[in-house]
UniProtKB/TrEMBL annotation:
<keyword id="KW-1133">Transmembrane helix</keyword>
<feature type="domain" description="STAS">
    <location>
        <begin position="460"/>
        <end position="577"/>
    </location>
</feature>
<feature type="transmembrane region" description="Helical">
    <location>
        <begin position="52"/>
        <end position="71"/>
    </location>
</feature>
<dbReference type="InterPro" id="IPR036513">
    <property type="entry name" value="STAS_dom_sf"/>
</dbReference>
<dbReference type="InterPro" id="IPR014710">
    <property type="entry name" value="RmlC-like_jellyroll"/>
</dbReference>
<feature type="transmembrane region" description="Helical">
    <location>
        <begin position="209"/>
        <end position="233"/>
    </location>
</feature>
<dbReference type="InterPro" id="IPR052706">
    <property type="entry name" value="Membrane-Transporter-like"/>
</dbReference>
<dbReference type="Pfam" id="PF00027">
    <property type="entry name" value="cNMP_binding"/>
</dbReference>
<feature type="transmembrane region" description="Helical">
    <location>
        <begin position="143"/>
        <end position="164"/>
    </location>
</feature>
<keyword id="KW-0472">Membrane</keyword>
<feature type="transmembrane region" description="Helical">
    <location>
        <begin position="239"/>
        <end position="255"/>
    </location>
</feature>
<feature type="domain" description="Cyclic nucleotide-binding">
    <location>
        <begin position="606"/>
        <end position="702"/>
    </location>
</feature>
<feature type="transmembrane region" description="Helical">
    <location>
        <begin position="401"/>
        <end position="434"/>
    </location>
</feature>
<dbReference type="InterPro" id="IPR011547">
    <property type="entry name" value="SLC26A/SulP_dom"/>
</dbReference>
<keyword id="KW-0812">Transmembrane</keyword>
<feature type="transmembrane region" description="Helical">
    <location>
        <begin position="311"/>
        <end position="332"/>
    </location>
</feature>
<feature type="transmembrane region" description="Helical">
    <location>
        <begin position="14"/>
        <end position="40"/>
    </location>
</feature>
Amino acid sequence: MNEELLEKAKPSKLMPAVIAGMVSGTLVVSFDISLGALIFNHGLADYLSRGIGIILISSVIVGVIVSLLSSYKPVIAAPQEDAAVILASMAAAITTGIAQKDPTASPFPTIVAAIAITSVVAGGFFLLLGLLRLGILVRFIPYPVAGGFIAGAGWLLLQGSISVMSGQPSALDIFPAVAMDPELLKRVLPGLVFGVLLLLVLRRFSSLLLLPVLLGGSIVVFYVSVGLAGVSVQQVLDSGWLLGPFPAASLWPPIAASDLGKVDWGVLFGSAGNMAAVTIMAAITVLLSASGVELATEQEIDLDRELRATGVANIVTGLFGGMVGYLSLAESSMSFKAGSNSRVSGLVAAAISCVVLFVGADAILYFPRPVLGGLIAYLGFHFLINTLYEGWFRLRRIEYFVIVVILLVVAVRGFLVGIGVGLGVSFILFALSYSRIEVVRNAISGLHLRSNVARSDGEEMTLTERAKQLYVLQLQGYIFFGTAYNLLSTAQQRIQSDDGEVRYLLLDFRHVNGIDSSAIASFLRLRRLAKANGVKLFFTEVRVDIRNHLERGEVFVRGDDDVCQIYPDLDRGLEACEKDIIAEAPPSMLPPPMLFYDLQDVFGGRDEMLRFLGYLERVELPDGFDLFRAGDVSKELYLIESGELTAWLEIDGKKVKRLRTMGPGSVVGESGLYMGEKRSATVTASRQSTLYRLSEEALQRMTAEAPELAAAFHHNVVTLLARRIVHSTGPVKSLFN
């Protein structure tokens, strides 16, 4: 551990983090000042210095706590412009509300209280999301939305860079305003050229110290140019080429404890809507920013930990009267690209805000605006090229279209609206794409799919002749209005086909993971269609939540339902269909299934059959008795005279899977006799049954004493096994049709 700490403390490792922190801290401070000016205007200019102090203390607290707790080490966290826009609206509303009640009262204490409460509420919400591990929700946000978010951030960074260099308000109309004013254009062009230079150099070369060297060199070039032009530093400062001058009044604390009594709580709580908007928007932005940093840096971020860290930071900053703050996409990405992989960068950035807060803004008074603006422009160019230029080659056109739409909306209406529009467009496109996925996993005729119930020859003939009356649709995925309509169309075509043979439609829900309310209408139409055409609907393996949904929608009717029937699995549903088909068919001309009739056919007469029965032992089984269990060692088989046996498996210690139900004439347990293997399944009497037992010793004796009987019996067993194989491979073949 000590060796690891020493390794991180080496100058080669520490210096990039310190430089990245200093650069990021300078950016954070400049943005803090602009955010303060954004919030405290419209009659609040007298409180600007203390407003800037609120933003700076927020940068210190949020920056330190998030840096220490974040899963992303070179994180830079601070108040962000998207939250500041809503807070500015809230401050204006509070000012208007108090002025209407008492024109002489100061709105500032109420505004400070509203900002602080918003931070605490948002922090609690972040913390709750993190503790519930809901950060994964952002993983379900489509990539084009995250890409559009990054593109929008790039646009606002480019717009902000021009604002920093020109001194004009950051707005969409800043571009034509600067282009039409030669003086402003002269201030902006050097920074934009510097930003393009940074972009070209840093995309070609990857040295960790290259960005700090370029920044330091650009500052030197700036002041050398000033000296060569014969202009004093004071003149440059007065003309607006440097960050200063800043307000000279005390920056913090914003209000004294005694001022809390001046808070107008009625007006404050009237801004609850704005507080909720900040909270929801900030939660989305935190997750999208973290996801954007992952894309920009190819570093994995624990989103739940990020939410918890941000939650704690905002609760603490709210207690100090600070505003909402969280991970900064631009500075955090720049910190990594500058070579930092340490928490030092975030702590250094927070320290610069602390110095400016308590020492004064003179700490960065002489930083050239073209250099700072060029750095911001570089970040904007970088994000825009990654999403717009490179995205053109690697994304589908429809995904690229979503990114462009989000970018345009962010540019015109802001982040929150842009994200909302992007999500809306993505959801629509997803619904259209998902509706093209075939909801019918397999469509199988009764010719190819049977239950695991052994039938007599007469029943088999009946089922074969009437197999087309049964049609099975195995469904899959999530059923909503689009896929439900496709299902309805498929069923309608089959029910109303020219042959009109379908009388039983079985819908298997085994692979369905949910349905929505819009799908209920399609199932109701299917029910009405089935009833009108005399078709019975069989639903199998329907999850409880889906079943409840269908019952509430009156697709299923409680009690006797002559249209819809529900069964626990496909096998039971097929058995019920087959029973109905057999019951409704005319009586078969074949004799009823009886063991003795079958054995007479096998051995060629009654006398030979009686000789064979002399080697067997009669066994009576009560209902529910286990003939044998899976894993038992047994060298014997059984012939069923009457009753019914069911072979089944126990899965995961609880789930029962029926393998086969066998009636009179069936052979049970032949593998134990012929192969000597342990029983692979449990066989239980479904009702009182009479069996004949043939042991290994009896078979050996019969082979020695009456080889012709043994040969006939072996031939019969082989025939039964062959039929069973054909019966079981039918469903498999149908899956590939």
